[in-house]
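Quick log. Single chain, no ligands specified.
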Amino acid sequence: MPATPPSTSPRRVVHTAKGMPASDGAGVKLNRVIGQPALPDLDPFLMLDAFGSDDPDAYIAGFPDHPHRGFETVTYMLAGRLRHRDNKGNEGLLTAGSVQWMTAGRGIVHSEMPEQEEGLMQGFQLWVNLPAKDKMTAPRYQDIAPERIPVIDLAAGVRAKIIAGEAWGVRGPVQPGATEPLFLDLHMAAGADVTVPLAQDHNAFVYVYEGEANVGEPASRIAQGAVGVLSLGDSIPIAAGGKGTCLILVAGKPLREPVAKYGPFVMNTRAELEQAFHDYQAGKF
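-> predicted structure:
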């Protein structure tokens, strides 16, 4: 069983927020967690959407062709099937437990469309900013099957999937970029607890998608459907509620750069945003 390193500065929860209803694509119903008035962003994270429904009317129209420039999109599927296609020739099928990590860079046009007409569709999409020096890099696509994601048992009743970054000496399959992202999916039985090591100066949050959790020191209760923004520190204690919990823990190195964003484009200045619109309209993506 992996050993948890001794903690010298445990983190605490400094802000909580509930997601708000939103829609995107062709009307897909979402719970917008980051990128809403209560939590506009958390450098380097620009947006987090949680989606989950067994009503096909809520997701069947999917996300038809749309552009991106200047950041990365991360789609993590808990249930369901989405087909990805883009104008760079990439195609992949997102199934339960799989991840798509797409670096839009200087420009890409892609679609994500359901390959099911019934059943549960559930997962997350996270937007991760790129530093100014990488915003016009060549687009890149990583399609990661469930069997490539390490799953480790940390303690009695605690199981972690390491999607990106490194924890307890185990590295996830996503090749890290400038923001050095850590992305964990934790499944915890009732009453179980764990302390997760984190880079001291990286911004981090937890989002509880099942049950509830007591997070930080002193402990703060995070309810299902809520996000907890963490203070800085080298670890975060987490204890499951009475019915167990499932949550994602995400951390990344802040860029501390100006952000200019509108719709599917995220740059550093308004002029760069205007150029992104011109380039897209001119077919340069």
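The first helix runs from residue 270 to 281.
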